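Posting for a labmate who doesn't have an account.
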Amino acid sequence: MTLNAIFYVFAAVLYLAAAFGIYKTLQEPEPTEKFWIRPLICAGLMIQAYLIYEALFLYGTPHFGMALALTITLFTCTFLLLLESFFSKIGAMLVFVLPLSAVSMLLPLLLPGSPLEPETASGPFRLHLLLAILAYSVMTMALIQGLLLMAVHKRVRSKDFISQDGAKHVNILDNMPSMMEMEKILFRLIWVGFIVLTAAILFGAVYSQELFGQAFRFDHKTVTTCMAWFIFGILLLGHHLRGWRGKFAALWTVIGFCVLMVSYIGVRFVMEVVPGA
């Protein structure tokens, strides 16, 4: 086993151990934060940051692809959630994100991507790429928050957590913030993601204009990205004007996220994985 492989496995173990610790904590009737969880996440983040840097410049020239995009996205999610954990009760989100981040670290070993073209060294492209990854990261957190909101909504309206003897079965959903607070976090994430996505689209248009002489090209990525932008924009407008919230808003979030992921991950998956694509 190479030294890099050991780093990958070690960081994955750190993430999984932290996720397990958070999961067990949230199952307690009165959760108390374990002092060792954040140091584990910080150590995993530092190792993952080094591995991402090495993967980008593994062959002497910058490489990028679907696997590395997913890895960087989940790394950013983990980092942002770690910061948010000091201010909000988002432990349940980390329970889902940390295992995904652990698995994603192995993907660049299987799919290292392809060298970036010289044209990608331009400022607008670098800003577009940075903002796009940040937008994907924030929208990933919004997706998980939306799914948790739907799960809490279903649990509140069911009696599955009450046993026949009247005792309450505690799980991680019972230690979530109130549904109103969860909705506030959801729409805060969507607003941030929408603003960053808008900036990413604008810088992408500037780069496209410089390279192709056309700001918006009619291709799969442009169409699906604009569709996702439109879906999130309608959701925010509906929330402001019509009071859209709860399960309905969470469902729109899931749909918007799926369309957004198709705009890059879906296309890159076909190009990098499907033979002859």
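Reply:
Got it, the structure tokens are right above this. Residues 163-167 have pLDDT under 50 and may be disordered.
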